[in-house]
Amino acid sequence: MFNKRTKIREALRMPAGSSDITVMGWVRTLRNNQFIALNDGSSNENLQIVLELGLFDEKLLKKITTGTSIRAVGKLVESPGKGQLVELKASGVEILGLCDTEKFPLQPKKHSLEFLREIAHLRFRTNTFGSVFRVRHALAFAVHQFFNERGFVYLHTPIITASDAEGAGEMFKVTTLPFDNTPRDEQGLVNFKDDFFGRATNLTVSGQLEGELASMGFSEIYTFGPTFRAENSNTTRHLAEFWMIEPEVAFNDLEDNANLAEAFVRYLINYVLKNNREDLEFLDQRLAEEEKQKPQNERSEAGLIEKLESVASQDFERITYTQAIAILLDSPAYKKKKFKYELFWGADMQSEHERYLVEKHFKKPVIVTDYPKEIKAFYMRQNEDGKTVAAMDILAPGIGEIVGGSQREERLDVLEARMTEMHIPIEQMWWYLDSRRFGTVPHAGFGLGFERMVQFVTGMTNIRDVIPFPRTPKNAEF
Predict the structure, then answer these.
(1) 209 burial class (0-12, 13-18, 19+ CB within 10 angstroms)?
(2) pTM of the model as a whole
(3) Mean pLDDT over the full length of the chain
(4) Phi and psi for 107 in degrees, rounded to 5?
(5) pLDDT exceeds 90 at position 295
(6) Is-contact 405 212, C-beta < 8 A?
(7) 304-313 vs 254-275: helix axis angle to the nearest 10?
C-alpha cells in the first residue's frame, strides 16, 4: 500500500533504531552509487538513503539518476555525517519512475529564476519554490482561519459576471459566439442576444459588489478567489489572473475597516512565522545572497525574518493622503528630483512614493486614508469636504500597496449621483442599488491581493514567482 509511506519531514525527526519505514520521493543526487539524497516535497530537507555496497544490482543503480522517483524501505540509523541526525539504511529500493538525465533540465546546480519560469511545471522540485509554495499554502489556510475565528461567512462570488466592479473596462470577455461569423445588429455591434447568457459577460475583476449584497444579510462575509484583469502590464507586480481576499462588513466605518485590515495582515505574518520557520529561514538566506548583488544604496536594511517580525509586532502608522503628499513634497527625494513620477495633491501615488513613506520616512507599514475622489472608484463613501472619499490603503515595505479598501457609499442619492457622474449604468446596476433601497447601513470592506502578500512574506521580487502558473501578456503556457 502506497499510503503507508512516511514523509521525509517526519522521518528526519524520528529516533534511530525504529522499525522499518517506507519513504518515497525524487532523487536529488546519487553519490558513489551508495548515497541517495531523497526529497518528497514535505520540506527542503533531504533524507540520505544509504545503499550497502554489493547488496543492490548494478543495473538498478545505473537507472537511479537525478529526478528519478523511488521507493525505499529500511531502518533509520544514526548518521555520522553532518547536517542530519538520521539516515535510512535501505534493505530494498524500487524505481517508480525513470528520468532521462540527459534531457532533465533540473540538474543539481544553481538555476536562474528566469529559467525556472520557463519550466514552471518542474520548478516545484527546487528548494526555492518548495519554500515559496509551502508558505503560500500556509497563508491560504491562515486566511480562512482568521475569518472563521471571527464568525465571517465564506462566500463564493461569481467568476463570470456582467458587471465591472472597478469601472475600469479592462476585462476578459466570455462568449460562445463564433469568432469567424459573429452575429451583429443593425448598428454593426455584436448581438449578444444569441450568446450563452444572452448578454455581454466577462471574467470578474472583483467579488466586492456581490460581497456587499451578502453582507446585508450576514453582516460579515469574505471572498477568496481568482480575479482577472486584461491589463497589458509586463511588470514584476502585475498578473492577468490572480487571487483576491475581499471581506465586506456591515455596520463598519473607515476606522473599523482599517483596524480589521491591520489585524488581518499581522495575523497572516504571525501564522507563517510560527508554522513555516524553516522555509522562511531558507528564503531569508536566499534573499540575503540576492541583496549582496545589488549596489549598497539599494540593499534592504533588514533581513526577511527581521522585517516580518517588525511588521507583525508593531502598530501601523496612520496618515491621511493630504499628510502623505505633504511629507513627500517636503522629502529630500522630491527636492533632489529622485522621484520618476509627478507628485501633487490629486495625483495617484506610485509605488516609489508609497515605498518612500514606508521604508524611508516611517520605517513601518503605513495606512493612508481619505484619498481624492477623482482617483477612486464610484462606490467609495464621499467625505463631507466634497473632495475626498473614505478610502484606505495599507502600504508595506518592499512592495507598496498591499491592501486597498474603503467605507462604501450607503446613501442612495449620493451613490446614484456619483454613478451618473462616472458614467456607470444605473439601470444595469439595479440589484446593487437595491441594497441601498431596502435597509441600507454603513458598511466597509477591502481587498488584499494574495500574490502581493505571498511576495511580501517570501521576499520574492517578481510576482510571477509566487503563483504556480503565471498568466501574463502573451503567456498562458502550462
Answers:
(1) buried
(2) 0.94
(3) 94
(4) -80, 155
(5) no
(6) no
(7) 140
